[in-house]
Design a protein that fits this description.
Blueprint (H helix, E strand, L loop, with lengths): L1 H14 L2 E2 L6 E2 L5 H10 L25 H5 L6 E7 L5 H10 L3 H13 L11 E4 L4 H7 L3 H6 L9 E2 L4 E3 L11 H8 L3 E3 L4 H4 L3 E9 L3 H12 L4 E9 L7
Parallel strand pairs: 3-9, 4-5, 4-8, 8-9
Antiparallel strand pairs: 1-2, 6-7
Helix pairs in contact: 4-5, 8-10
C-alpha cells in the first residue's frame, strides 16, 4: 500500500501543481528548496539539546547533554529527537493540518523531515514506530490523526515497523491546557493503554513514539510509562516541533 502511495505521489508531483507548506508559493514540491535550506540551517536539530527530552540546553548543561529537569525528575522515555522549535517555519503547516484539515500539509511536513532530519537518525535502532493516538471521539470529530498522517509518510530506513493501532487513548472532556508539568502529568494519567494483542508483540522491544508537537512532555511521558509497564525495553520520541520549557509546578 505504501509502495502504491509513493508511486501516486511521484506521478502527482510531475503532473500536478503544488504549493510549499512554508512559503505557500506554487512550485513542484510540497516544500520548496529555499525553505528546506532554511530549515536545514536553523532547525532545532542543529542545536545542543537534552538527549532525553529534546529541550535546548543552557550553557551549564552542555557537558552532560542532559537538562536539569531530566536529572531532577527523569521521564520514562529514554531519548527525544525534535526537528525544529515550535516557533519555527513549520508551525503554520502543523496548524493547517490539525485545525484546518488540510491533509496535503502532511506530505510537506513528512518531506521536510525526510529531507533534513532522517540522515541524523539513520543509526537509531528500533523495532516499531507508534504514532501518538487520538481518542475515538476526537478522531471522529477531526477525521484523521495528524501524527499518523505525518508518520505514515516518514521513510523509516531502520527496521522499524509502523503500528498505527497499537496505542489507544481514552476520551476525557477536560483537556490538559495550561498549568505546569505536574498539572499536565496529573491530567493525562491513565489515559493511554495498549490494544489487546499488541502487548506481547511490543514486550522487550525498542519503540519509537511519533508526535507532531511536544510541549510539556506529559503526553509522551505517560505513553512511555505505559509502554515500559508492559515490558518495552527502550522508548524513543520522534517529534516534529518542540516548545520551550514549561514550569514544573
Amino acid at each position: 500500500m505504501q509502495f502504491l502511495e509513493k508511486i501516486f505521489q511521484s506521478i502527482s508531483q510531475q503532473l500536478l501543481p503544488s504549493a510549499c507548506v512554508v512559503c505557500e508559493r506554487y512550485q513542484q514540491n510540497s516544500i520548496c528548496e529555499p525553505c528546506l535550506q532554511s530549515l536545514k540551517a536553523d532547525g532545532l536539530f542543529n542545536y545542543e539539546c537534552c538527549y532525553q527530552c529534546g529541550i535546548s540546553l543552557d550553557k551549564s548543561e552542555l557537558v552532560d547533554q542532559h537538562c536539569k529537569q531530566c536529572k531532577i525528575d527523569p521521564p520514562h522515555f529514554d531519548e527525544t529527537y525534535c526537528l525544529d522549535r515550535y516557533e519555527g517555519i513549520l508551525q503554520n503547516a502543523i496548524h493547517q493540518l490539525k485545525y484546518h484539515r488540510r491533509l496535503a500539509y502532511a506530505h510537506g511536513l513528512a518531506r521536510a523531515w525526510n529531507q533534513t532530519f532522517l540522515t541524523q537518525l539513520k543509526n537509531i535502532h528500533a523495532h516499531y514506530l507508534l504514532p501518538v493516538p487520538l481518542s475515538t471521539q476526537k478522531l471522529s470529530a477531526r477525521g484523521f490523526n495528524q501524527s499518523w498522517e505525518i508518520a505514515r509518510r516518514i521513510d523509516c530506513k531502520s527496521t522499524a515497523q509502523k503500528l498505527p493501532y497499537a496505542l489507544k487513548r481514552e476520551h476525557r472532556e477536560h483537556q490538559q491546557v495550561g498549568g505546569g508539568l505536574s498539572t499536565r502529568r496529573l491530567a493525562i494519567q491513565g489515559i493511554f493503554y495498549i490494544e489487546a494483542g499488541f502487548a506481547e508483540i511490543l514486550r522487550g522491544q525498542r519503540v519509537i513514539v511519533f508526535d507532531d508537537v511536544m510541549t510539556s512532555g506529559a503526553t509522551l511521558n505517560e505513553i512511555a510509562r505505559v509502554l515500559k509497564d508492559n515490558g518495552v525495553s527502550h522508548v524513543i520520541n520522534w517529534v516534529v516541533l518542540r516548545t520551550a520549557k514549561v514550569p514544573h509546578v
